Batch of 2 targets.
Target 1
Amino acid sequence: MRLPTARGPASALLVEALSGIPDGLPDDADHWWPEADGTADGTDPIRDEDLHLFLHVCYELHYRGFDGVDERWEWDPSLLAVRAAAERRFEAALHRTVGPLPVVEPVAVPEALTSLVAADDGPSLAAALHREADLARFREFVTQRSVYHLREADPHTWGIPRLGGPAKAALVEIQMDEYGRGQLPRMHAELFRDTMDWLGLDTGYGAYVDSVPAVTLATNNLISLFGLHRRWRGALLGHLAAFEMTSSLPNRRYGDTLRRLGGTPEATRFYDEHVEADAVHEQIAAYDLCGSFALDEPARAGDVLFGAACCLALDRLVAEHTLGSWAAGRSSLRLPLAAGH
């Protein structure tokens, strides 16, 4: 994957630096983030293009990296110091967005997750697509989701070595399904590639990073933030639980929408697979995963709810951005798509 195009001064400095050998970066936060909230114009950091491309590039060094980028950058101390400053801005924005959450006893975490999901009143992107999407809008939706789905499960897998006991077993059980139980054609990322291929989209890993807006990158950066920091292991599990608990019905609608638009069984299989799998996963995630973890590490019970709340909040922002863009007669993407299938 090539380095993406910079979206501001910080990401420009980073992209330029990564083109060379690790030689130390300025570690003064003001050099990279001159404003207190990490933006130059007062924009909410969750919607800041420069900040989230910067974080996306930093995090990608821990996944598959970039063509021509020295792999020693992954653990370069000066880059990690600058990344930490960017993460502080992101984390502060997440806390402001989510607000205070109820304090619950560890034993009540599964029920608290269920209540949190039930109380979410954000707009339903799946319902809107089901009602009125044409092929162009569905292609746009799939493009938005491709940044995550082409590496589906990978960010949550960071949690496996951080756990033990029943919680670890539950996470492994979920992830085994995500990875097709070791069968390449059944891996969810591969099923999504089939969907993209039918829609005439580029199936290359990270092909549309330049196309998606900051809020989409933020949803991906959120999981990487939680997955790459052991201190956020509880939030990572809460994120996965909310992700699974809000998946089955939307994926049924996505599959039905694509069938209405002429999608083949191969094209819709990704969504059909999630209808069944995630109905099971949501129970495993809430009780066996998060419930067991909270009992084992009661001091982290609040982190579980924070991770779930962040998942719901950022998904809501993506839906609002996408539907708002369409209502205004414009694309939700930064770059237009070429004509497809």
Target 2
Amino acid sequence: METNNVKQIHDFGQSIWLDFIDRKIMNTGELQELIDKDGVRGITSNPAIFEKAISSSSDYDADISQLAQRNLSNEDLFYTLAVSDIKRAADIFWPTYNDGDVVGADGYVSLEVSPFLARDTDGTIAQALKLWKTVERNNVMIKIPGTAQGLPAIQHCISEGLNINVTLLFSLERYEAVTNAYITGLEMRDQAGLPIDKISSVASFFLSRIDTLIDPMLAEKGLADLKGEVAIASAKKAYEIYKRVFNSDRFLKLAAKGATPQRLLWASTGSKDPSFSDVKYLEALIGPKTVNTVPMDALVAFRDHGVAADRLEDDLDKATQTLQRLADAGIDLAALTQQLEDEGIEKFNTPYQKLLDAIETQRTKALA
């Protein structure tokens, strides 16, 4: 039997989720094939992915024309389309969700709140609760950006029993704050006498964008040897935080009642620098109880020539030294990761507005 490089990653305790969704991969059976052949165990979406799916195909035209007859805002029309896709994908992943010793270990499909709400706590909570109720699937995660304003929203939604994918994380300090929001949400729910054993969450740590921003600064600081190393070093340090937090007495009290750790998820794992291996970020961060959400081209590349091995905790001393050398050279990682968060919000706002504009054009045409 032919070995599959992607499927082998699961042997080391990491789940591979696909960072892509459209109707074509569901209609053609390609998504089911990725589950069967590559062992893909979940799927994530974001505004940019949906913008590409809806704007670059005619698969949604009939639905948009039909929905245009109803008195919906462009955003409500979009979410009607998105929820339909998310429900269908969740049903495809339902056997994965129910597979294995622990029901709900995987099989999740992620739907993101509007990027326009990234700095709006109350708006995020309201939309997250609405989407959760509308989707009606236990194997859906609502994506909330891990901004300062997102933290209380994450905490509240966990206390309400939602599965949450915390997205757009770049800094270690913010990541640790996210773990606190998750645990506090569980504690609030437990204190209310509500079950905490069916809630799942991931914290999505973005990688390649860190190197894309910092690498050009390194040579002038005499740190050219650190090119392509800062994101991986940050991820390894994040995993240290994960192990410390979720082995703490505070969390273990919740674990005794069925709570599960909030897994780290590696995002932005496609290599953006052509001088890097196209499987660089996938190979470097394979390790137990983690998730990697992989763009389609990176998945295909790993299937072809990726080498699966448990590397996440290799060279931890080197990771510590890498971040220390940045600080010693006057590179302010905290300021740069805040810049990345701000840019990340804008990178979702722009395609989201483009998507709403495209929907407006099509509904105008349908109503003409």
